[in-house]
Design a protein that fits this description.
The chain has 281 residues and is of the alpha+beta class. It has eight helices and 15 strands. Helix content is 30%, strand content 26%.
Length: 281
């Protein structure tokens, strides 16, 4: 992800192997991660991302590898060493290195901390936001604690690969009741036929998206009608607008779902407004 990574107190080239094969993140997905967007050298929603990282650690009972203040210093130094101005920072924390066993290690082990940073192709991101993206639906096959930002992403990987092979950018998971949960790496939104901005309410069913929370605040501040209620794929296909959001792709319009055009196959006005306001354009 970058030329230089921070791993357990050392800044080193990415091609240097320094994570043990006995690391529980590698062997058991006993690990969490967090992603910050960097724009103009600034970490977007920095405090909220840090709070979510701390929550994920608490839910898995993994000890923090360092204080939030120290971690921010490591993040900024990793950004500096990689000359990141417009991109992302990736932080991963595992329970650490221990003999392979499903139960937690009996004695304390030092958590493994990895920090990387890279610039993203801003031209490609802007073009995606301008033209919109295609979505496919996929059955919800993930575990029931999706509120924890764990590295257990195999179902997400398979669904995202299916989307790519179908010529789409993202897949929306659909639960057994027919309601959309979220994307493989994004929050799902629609402007329904009544003009309401809708997204699934927070629960263990979805990741508590940081960008999601900021967009909701911005929408309410502009007197948009907001409804945190689930919606079906059929409702999404019939919606006035649909869009996805994530740290690296805030408010990107969805122009088709399973081959069905949404909103006339164009990025909607509300989507464009929310994106512009979020980015301070």
């Amino acid at each position: 992800m970058s030329h230089v990574a921070y791993v357990n107190g050392v800044y080193a080239p990415l091609n240097v192997p320094f994570v043990s094969v006995l690391d529980r993140g590698f062997q058991l997905a006993d690990s969490i991660y967090e992603v910050w967007a960097v724009r103009g050298g600034v970490l977007f929603d920095a405090d909220e991302h840090m709070a979510r990282l701390q929550r994920s650690l608490e839910e898995l009972r993994i000890a923090p590898p360092m204080s939030a203040k120290s971690l921010l210093a490591v993040i900024r130094e990793t950004m500096r060493r990689n000359r990141v101005r417009d991109g992302i920072v990736y932080v991963q924390v595992s329970r650490g290195v221990a003999p392979r066993d499903h139960v937690f290690p009996a004695a304390y082990v030092r958590p493994t901390l990895v920090v990387t940073a890279k610039n993203l192709d801003q031209t490609a991101i802007a073009a995606r936001a301008e033209s919109g993206v295609k979505i496919i639906s996929a059955p919800e096959t993930r575990w029931t604690r999706r509120d924890i930002k764990s590295v257990n992403l195999l179902a997400n990987v398979l669904a995202r690969q299916a989307a790519k092979e179908a010529g789409a950018f993202e897949a929306w998971f659909v639960d057994d009741d027919g309601f959309v949960t979220e994307g493989t790496s994004s929050t799902a939104w629609i402007i329904d036929t009544e003009g309401r901005l809708r997204t699934r309410p927070l629960s263990n069913d979805i990741l508590h998206g940081v960008t999601r929370g900021t967009l909701l605040k911005l929408a309410r501040a502009r007197d948009l009608t907001v409804s945190e209620t689930p919606f079906t794929i059929a409702e999404a296909k019939a919606a006035r607008e649909a869009f996805i959001s994530s740290a690296s792709n805030p408010a990107v319009g969805v122009v088709s779902i399973d081959g069905v055009p949404v909103g006339g196959g164009k990025v909607g006005a509300v989507t464009r407004i929310l994106r512009a306001v979020y980015l301070g354009a």
